[in-house]
Write a structure and sequence with these properties.
With 296 residues, this protein is mainly α. Among the domains are: 39 residues; 87 residues, no CATH class. It is built from 13 helices and two strands. The protein has a two-stranded antiparallel ribbon. The protein starts with a helix and ends in a 17-residue tail after the last helix. 14% of the residues are buried.
Length: 296
């Protein structure tokens, strides 16, 4: 009986799911259900542990806090939906199907509406007209940059494909595969160093990942918190470099953000310095270590 049941399931899967092109829809449904139940389980475990006052061990689920902000899982969901939606639009069969074009247009409209309120999702508060509301503008900038790179014909890791197709050498293919495997850890290091834009663009232009991984971390990033807490010279250099290089970037960014967010105007030196004081700061040391006091 079990044998016939397994045979029937396999036949149904091959004929109705794979044969009729429904495998992506099935994977989407299964991932949706599993993620929902896993997320609910983790949230209940975190809540129960907090109510009991028990400490969190390293392997247990926990809330994510970045810069004092509790990052709710809806934030990660929005990012994954946007990335997967953009990927599906990019990988459409030929780019000439009217139904895909209509779906892509509707996705673009929905993505703009969601990202315009991204700060509300991140902070779970109506900060649309406040300083924290500028996070929405940053999210829109990132989406436009990625989509623009894709439109120009660039795609992640495209630098390696010519080497892969250059010949049939096993050693060459193994070398390219090895470098591809190392690309993701490099991107993780770059992001941990606080260089989000470098990590984003580095997936298209890999040399940026190498440069970002070698150079100093931004002083407020997790990498600085872990690595520079006992190296005051590196933290001092990171702070000085950050304030020197970030000043023109902050000025331009504030002007664009204010123009888009509804308060256009050229930022003066006082507002730029205030923004630098807000952005450029040493990361807090890990628990159990003394903070590094660095004079500006």
């Amino acid at each position: 009986m079990l044998h016939w049941f397994a045979f029937g399931v396999a036949r149904w899967f091959a004929h109705d799911i794979v044969g009729r092109g429904r495998l992506p829809l099935l994977c989407c449904l299964v991932a949706f259900i599993l993620t929902f139940f896993v997320t609910r389980t983790f949230v209940r475990v975190i809540r129960h542990r907090a109510a009991a006052g028990r400490p969190t061990r390293w392997w247990q689920p926990r809330n994510v806090h970045i810069g004092g902000v509790h990052i709710h899982h809806v934030t990660f969901g929005v990012v994954l939906v946007m990335l997967s939606g953009l990927t599906l639009v990019t990988l459409s069969i030929s780019g000439q199907e009217p139904e895909f074009t209509l779906a892509a247009t509707l996705f673009g409209i929905g993505a703009a509406l969601v990202l315009d309120e991204y700060a509300l999702i991140l902070h779970l508060s109506d900060v649309y007209w406040e300083e924290d509301g500028r996070t929405s503008v940053d999210a829109v900038f990132a989406a436009v940059a990625v989509a623009g790179l894709l439109i120009t014909g660039l795609h992640p890791l495209m630098f390696f494909f010519p080497f892969w197709h250059a010949g049939d050498s096993v050693a060459l293919h193994a070398g390219v595969a090895g470098v591809l495997v190392l690309t993701l850890p490099l991107a993780v290091v770059v992001v941990l160093k606080g260089k989000v834009w470098t990590g984003l663009l580095g997936m298209f232009i890999v040399i940026l990942l190498v440069i970002g991984a070698i150079r100093l971390s931004r002083p407020h990033a997790p990498w600085a918190r872990w690595r520079y807490s006992t190296q005051p010279d590196k933290m001092r250099r990171a702070l000085q470099r950050e304030r020197r290089l970030r000043r023109p970037v902050v000025r331009a960014k504030m002007w664009v953000q204010c123009a888009i967010a509804g308060t256009p105007g050229l930022p003066d030196d006082r507002s730029v310095d205030a923004q630098l004081d807000h952005d450029v700061h040493a990361a807090p040391p890990p628990e159990g270590t003394e903070p590094i006091l660095i004079a500006r």
